[in-house]
Amino acid sequence: LMAEKNGFDTFMLKEIHEQPRAYRDTMRGRIDEANQSVVLPGMHLTDEQARDVRHIQMVACGTAYHAALVGKTVIERLTRIPVEVDLASEYRYRMPVVPDHTLVIAVSQSGETADTLAAMKEAKERGARVMAITNVVGSSVAREAEDVLFTLAGPEIAVASTKAYTSQLIAFYLLALRMAEARGTIDKVMLVEMLALLERLPVQVEEMLQRLQPIEQLAHQITRHEHLFFIGRGLDYSVAMEASLKLKEISYIHSEAYAAGELKHGSLALIEEGTPVIALATDERLLEKTISNIKEVKARGAYVIGIALEGNMELAKTADHVIYVPHTHALLTPAVAVIPLQLLAYYTATLRGNDVDKPRNLAKSVTVE
Ligand code: G6P
């Protein structure tokens, strides 16, 4: 078994380190260098059909749901198609309104999650065209969909998803760019720039993984706490939700992800002396707002760990500790920002002596409804 772990102590740590490769594999053959364009050979959706889409609805569970939240922001920003994201278990029972020209996208690592499959069937019955983003060829979700965009993360063994999530982000970037090209909602200059930045991500993640060892030290700051918060705005909020889930799944520390601007409407009451707050502030447009939220929690005694872009000097003035992530396009930042938080969850759980690969009560794939 040691061999399968490739020298790593656990599958989760191995899979965290496999992310640069997973990014490359998921992009491979899908970026036409000569024409600077995205090509998705497995997809039946034609450019004309892509132009015809008026609504997108996404369904997924767990970590895949968090990837869909990022996908929503990226697709809306690049194509201006309105996107709704639902938990699959909610979608299927809420009598969803599925207008004409709706594309439903199901996201599932395993391709076997019962609720996601049921939501796809519901969407089909209501006349939607159904697309899947999945990691498993021949899975039920792949078979149920008209179009499939495979992530090439490789087998994911650890229950807590890492490389499958980030590969789903890469798949969404490719899909959004393809649809934006088809619909003429992205100009060539921006497309070329985004493709270049997308292709730089694997190297940026590799470099980051080499210098993130100190995160293990930082984990000591949170292991003795029983509850904490993640805060962020926009895409930082979506990443906060995934980071919070990761921490809960494997460390058993109660944690909550909050939209930074919403804290003052209730949760601020829970902040006391020493409460850890992990503040994601990678979005330069929202930085000032997030910093004022950090000051709010600091004033109530929180211990703040900030996540900021390299070169940012502001966050260090207010946060107790700052983790820096590399610069890329704002829409691509989740693919770098989540990495240190996967490691923080990992080391926190390890310090607590938990079985990181097999957390209590959880299954890798949930095939019952
Ligand atoms: C389970 C796993 C989660 C996963 C979710 C959805 O609950 O423990 O890690 O995110 O199912 O799985 P899927 O295979 O559909 O992405």
TrEMBL record:
The keyword Repeat belongs to this UniProt entry's keyword annotation: yes
Keyword annotations: Aminotransferase, Cytoplasm, Glutamine amidotransferase, Repeat, Transferase
Main location class: cytoplasm
GO terms of molecular function: carbohydrate derivative binding; glutamine-fructose-6-phosphate transaminase (isomerizing) activity
Record's subcellular location: Cytoplasm
Catalytic activity: D-fructose 6-phosphate + L-glutamine = D-glucosamine 6-phosphate + L-glutamate
GO cellular component: cytosol
GTP-binding keyword on record: no
Residues annotated as domain SIS: 45-185, 218-359
BP terms from Gene Ontology: carbohydrate metabolic process; fructose 6-phosphate metabolic process; protein N-linked glycosylation; UDP-N-acetylglucosamine metabolic process
Active site: 364 (for fru-6p isomerization activity)
Superkingdom, taxonomy of origin: Bacteria
Known EC number: 2.6.1.16
Quaternary structure and interacting proteins, as annotated: Homodimer.
Stated role: Catalyzes the first step in hexosamine metabolism, converting fructose-6P into glucosamine-6P using glutamine as a nitrogen source.
Protein name listed in UniProt: Glutamine--fructose-6-phosphate aminotransferase [isomerizing]
Organism (species): Paenibacillus rigui
Lineage, broadest ranks: Bacteria, Bacillati, Bacillota, Bacilli, Bacillales
